[in-house]
């Protein structure tokens, strides 16, 4: 546990990985004074949301202090009334998520029928919170060209956030940006949508889908010193706040188009001997289109006639992307596959740039002419070399003698809905759901295109939240939130056909663990010195991650203290059927096996890895059986208490404690 203390701000933090469901709301407070500077108690103060015209009311205490601790994001008008004073009105106060604004009010003597309206030239509302960070608003979205319309990269506009280029074209992704926030690790910050945790349980560097820009009201980036109610992260938070409906109907429709017809060809393609490559740029088609609509839900003359109770917002976005992916490699010549390595005697050969000699392991002497006799060739070794595609005629870039173009397609849908229901002046209920399924192929899941995959990644987040105002000084915020990225699957792409099957090349050696392979025809990983490694990776597989949070926060205003405390219970887990994803040779992440044919490192080497493959002499072979599906689960509990104490008109103290219990991950498969 890390204790962090700053002047006027005391917090206890817990290192990752803990989760806190905190709805994104803000606070407006201040002191009401008369023209002599004396505090005015008993003033009736109203905060009205200018978009929905919903309002909250409170009364100043004996110190003239007032506070609205739970306001949804938006632009507000503050009104103050008291007998013997002119009415005070201040408009256009922008409140962002997690902001704590102070709006001082000065009342002038007069009648309540007289109104003093504060103009924009007056002093702006001041931020009280000691946290560092900033907010990117929907207005900024409209003014900026965002390449690929992925709003997470707008976090780079805030001080302390560095890393990926803000111009990154990443329209179809689950990346959370790979940022370093205030020097933290790129996987040590968390992402939220309306307070619902949106970081994957399996991979902290990714989130549950790129959000729809048209559905986002603002992005708040917390970089440090945030209050105890915001937990879990030791390297910042990125918090998306979605739009809600307003008193008026609003909507948009759009399309963003990119097409290869507008592009120039690449240098490598211009130098390709293939007419299909040197005659035109690679296919790069991108269509991003959608719509959004929001407004009131009402029945004229019967329900919500003033359009101030029930609001909706709905957005749909479709991303259709298809493009060509070029790759190059170094592959054996047709002669090499039959044992003829004479080309390697040339000191200028393109494989090594120097003369290489293959020795007969049985005699220790060079093979005559660098040609291995047919009687000594190993059928499985030859089959392994035949798994390499043939060189591309006329193509040579350095050692690379093969080039190929593979088609890629990616379909991304983004559905967002939200309803806000002001049941009465004491209860605000909102429900939001986001569904972002992503389907795409990866023809280069393995090098040289020898394992091609089809991915399906469902991404869902949702929250139900009820804010209840028992009195102007006592509020409760109860929420249930969830996320899921399952069932996600990575299956072999049938379009690859025989090209991706080991039997096509005559590879028939028996497995060490037969009957355990998820894709029995998948090629082994093959490492040969001087050639591109055939790495067909850890897939196929599947997964299903989930996070369920149940949270309740209570806010109590006592004098000049705004005290907040709460607790959350979380159930999270991952049903894991992904094979080993990381391994270093001689180990492997390919359950179908891995060979190493190196120049040295074994007693019967020929001194040349390619010759060792032809002779069937490998340095290492690794293989493992199928890993069973593992249902990892954990239950966590978190609690916090904090106080914002308005000591004086110019001084506020933020202090609090947070306690988190995160037990070790376990599985029902354990004995």
**What spatial form do the alpha-carbon principal axes imply?**
elongated
Strands side by side in the biggest sheet: 23-24-27-28-31-29-26-25
Give the overall pLDDT as a whole number. Answer: 88
Tally of helical segments: 5
Strand tally is 37
Question: Which topology of the domain at 250-271 and 287-323 and 404-439 and 453-503 and 538-586 and 626-667 does CATH recognise?
Answer: Maltoporin, Chain A
Main sheet properties: 8 strands, antiparallel, barrel
Task: Assign the CATH architecture of the domain at 250-271 and 287-323 and 404-439 and 453-503 and 538-586 and 626-667.
Answer: Beta Barrel
Helix content: under 10%
What is the CATH domain class of the domain at 250-271 and 287-323 and 404-439 and 453-503 and 538-586 and 626-667? Mainly Beta
| Rg calculated over all Cα atoms | 32 Å
Please, what is the CATH homologous superfamily of the domain at 250-271 and 287-323 and 404-439 and 453-503 and 538-586 and 626-667?
Answer: TonB-dependent receptor, beta-barrel domain
Strand pairing plus helix content: what structural class?
mainly beta
Beta fraction: 35-45%
Distance between the termini: 31 Å
- As residue ranges, the low-confidence spans are 1-21
Task: Explain the overall architecture.
This protein has 671 residues and is mainly beta. Among the domains are: 20-126, Carboxypeptidase-like, regulatory domain (Immunoglobulin-like, Sandwich), CATH 2.60.40.1120; 132-242, TonB-dependent receptor, plug domain (Ferric Hydroxamate Uptake Protein, Chain A, domain 1); 250-271 and 287-323 and 404-439 and 453-503 and 538-586 and 626-667, TonB-dependent receptor, beta-barrel domain (Maltoporin, Chain A, Beta Barrel). Helices cover 4% and strands 43% of the residues. The protein has an eight-stranded antiparallel β-barrel with strand order 23-24-27-28-31-29-26-25. A hairpin with a 5-residue loop joins strand 7 and strand 8 (87-95). It is elongated.
């Amino acid at each position: 546990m890390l204790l962090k203390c700053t002047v006027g701000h005391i917090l206890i933090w817990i290192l990752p990985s803990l989760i806190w469901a905190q709805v994104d709301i803000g606070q407006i407070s201040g002191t009401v004074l008369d023209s002599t500077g004396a505090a005015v108690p008993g003033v009736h103060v109203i905060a009205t949301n200018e978009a929905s015209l919903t309002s909250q009311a409170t009364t100043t205490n004996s110190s003239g202090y007032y506070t609205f601790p739970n306001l949804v994001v938006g632009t507000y008008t503050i009104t103050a009334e008291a007998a013997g004073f002119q009415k005070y009105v201040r408009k256009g106060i922008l409140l962002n998520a997690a902001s704590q604004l102070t709006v001082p009010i000065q009342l002038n003597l007069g009648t309540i029928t007289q109104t003093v309206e504060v103009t924009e030239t007056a002093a702006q509302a001041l931020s009280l919170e000691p946290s560092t960070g900033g907010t990117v608003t929907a207005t900024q979205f409209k003014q900026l060209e965002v390449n690929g319309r992925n709003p997470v990269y707008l976090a780079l506009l805030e001080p302390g956030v560095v890393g990926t280029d803000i111009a990154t074209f990443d329209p179809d992704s689950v990346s959370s940006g790979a940022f370093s926030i205030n020097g933290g690790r790129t996987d040590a910050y968390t992402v939220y949508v309306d307070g619902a945790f949106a970081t994957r349980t399996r991979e902290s560097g990714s989130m549950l889908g790129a959000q729809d820009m048209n559905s986002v009201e603002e992005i708040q980036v917390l970089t440090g010193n945030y209050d105890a109610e915001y937990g879990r992260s030791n390297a910042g938070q990125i918090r998306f706040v979605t739009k809600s409906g307003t008193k008026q109907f609003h909507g948009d429709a759009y399309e963003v188009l990119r097409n290869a017809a507008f592009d120039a060809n690449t240098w490598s393609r211009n130098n390709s001997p293939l007419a299909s490559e040197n005659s035109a740029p690679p296919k790069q088609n991108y269509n991003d289109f959608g719509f959004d609509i929001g407004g009131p839900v009402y029945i004229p003359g019967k329900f919500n006639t003033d359009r101030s109770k029930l609001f909706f917002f709905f957005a749909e976005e479709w991303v259709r992307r298809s493009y060509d992916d070029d790759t190059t490699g170094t592959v054996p010549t047709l002669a090499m596959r039959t044992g003829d390595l004479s080309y390697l005697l040339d000191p200028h050969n393109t494989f090594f740039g120097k003369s290489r000699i293959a020795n007969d392991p049985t005699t220790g002497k060079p093979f005559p002419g660098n040609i291995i006799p047919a009687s000594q060739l190993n059928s499985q070794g030859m089959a392994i070399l035949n798994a390499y595609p043939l060189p591309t005629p006329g193509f040579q870039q350095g050692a690379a003698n093969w080039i190929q173009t593979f088609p890629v397609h990616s379909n991304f849908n983004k559905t967002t809905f939200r309803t806000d229901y002001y049941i009465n002046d004491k209860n605000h209920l909102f429900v939001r759901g986001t569904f972002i399924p992503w389907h795409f192929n990866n023809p280069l899941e393995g090098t040289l295109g020898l394992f091609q995959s089809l991915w399906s990644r469902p991404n869902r987040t949702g929250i139900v939240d009820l804010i209840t105002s028992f009195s102007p000084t006592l509020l409760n915020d109860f929420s249930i939130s969830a996320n899921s990225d399952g069932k996600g699957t990575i299956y072999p792409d049938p379009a690859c056909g025989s090209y991706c099957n080991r039997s096509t090349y005559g590879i028939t050696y028996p497995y060490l663990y037969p009957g355990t392979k998820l894709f029995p025809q998948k090629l082994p990983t093959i490492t040969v010195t001087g050639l591109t490694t055939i790495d067909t990776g850890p897939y196929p597989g599947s997964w299903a991650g989930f996070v369920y949070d149940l949270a309740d926060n209570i806010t109590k205003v006592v004098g000049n203290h705004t005290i907040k405390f709460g607790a959350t219970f979380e159930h999270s887990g991952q049903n894991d059927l992904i094979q080993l994803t990381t391994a270093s040779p001689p180990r492997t992440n390919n359950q179908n096996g891995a060979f190493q044919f190196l120049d040295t490192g074994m007693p019967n080497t020929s001194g040349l890895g390619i010759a060792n493959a032809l002779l069937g002499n490998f340095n290492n072979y690794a293989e493992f059986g199928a890993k069973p599906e593992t249902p990892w689960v954990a239950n966590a509990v978190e609690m916090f208490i904090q106080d914002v104490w308005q000591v004086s008109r110019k001084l506020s103290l933020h202090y609090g404690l947070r306690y988190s219990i995160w037990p070790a991950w376990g599985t029902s498969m354990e004995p």
